[in-house]
Amino acid sequence: MSLVQSIGLFWNEADVFWGRGSQPGAIYGLPANNVTADPIDFREQVGVYVLYADYDLIYVGQTGSGKSKLLNRLKQHRTDDLAGRWNKFSWFGLRRVLASGELSNVNQAAHPELADVLNHIEAILIHAVEPPLNRQGGRFGEVVTRYLQWRDDRLPPTLEQMVLDIHRKVVDDT
Fold first, then answer.
1. Which tens digits make up the pLDDT trace of 99-156?
2. What is the DSSP string of 17-72?
3. How many CB atoms lie within 10 A of CB 121?
4. pLDDT-derived band of residue 94, with 50, 70 and 90 as boundaries?
5. Separation CA 84–CA 93 (nearest Å)
6. Which of 56, 63, 111, 171 is the one with CA 20 to 30 A from 90?
7. Residues 6+ apart with CB under 8 A from 87
8. How far is C-alpha 75 from the chain's CA centre?
9. pLDDT tens-digit profile of 47-76?
10. Any residues with CB less than 8 A from the CB of 94 and at least 6 apart, and which?
11. 13, 29, 92, 143, 168 from 121: Cα distances, Å
């Protein structure tokens, strides 16, 4: 049994829909090995997360204590003393994604072997910090799925998307 079930590395804070009015926020991701799959919402994920200013690590935290889940913890950091000091985050989740696209109950996991726990702790640190002398990547094993961030459709277009749209219109008009 694996300790870490799913991970997301260096996701952009600006690509998260944080919620508005009665609309709950969401943190969407796609399996790195199947980017045509339906997006999965990781807002309720529990585990360890890391905040970065660009790619410089500035904070490490955890989710899962009490009612604190990934989206809520990240939202807190947008208004606390870390506000404006981070723009990327990585997460290492203990809840696996079920075939339905829902997250499993973290209490359903059996106790992993000590060697697996140590490999996962080392892998979290290697992926979070990216130490220059570690030549190997972290060893999560085959049961851990990496997810790529998916930008929520409810967000306005990015500056890059607007420039591309203007460029396309200019090229099409000539």
1. 999 998 865 546 676 667 767 787 888 888 877 766 666 666 667 888 889 998 889 8
2. EEEETTEEEE-EEEETT-TTSPPEE-TT--EEEEEEETTEEEEEEEE-STT--HHH
3. 15
4. confident
5. 24
6. 111
7. 12, 13, 14, 52, 53, 54
8. 13
9. 899 999 999 998 998 888 777 899 999 999
10. 3, 4, 5, 45, 46, 47, 64, 106, 109
11. 24, 22, 10, 15, 46
For residue 85, pLDDT beyond 80: yes
**CB atoms inside a 10 Å sphere around CB 134:** 13
Q: What is the pTM of this model?
A: 0.80
CA distance 173 to 2: 55
Residue 140 in 3-state DSSP?
coil
Residues in the chain: 174
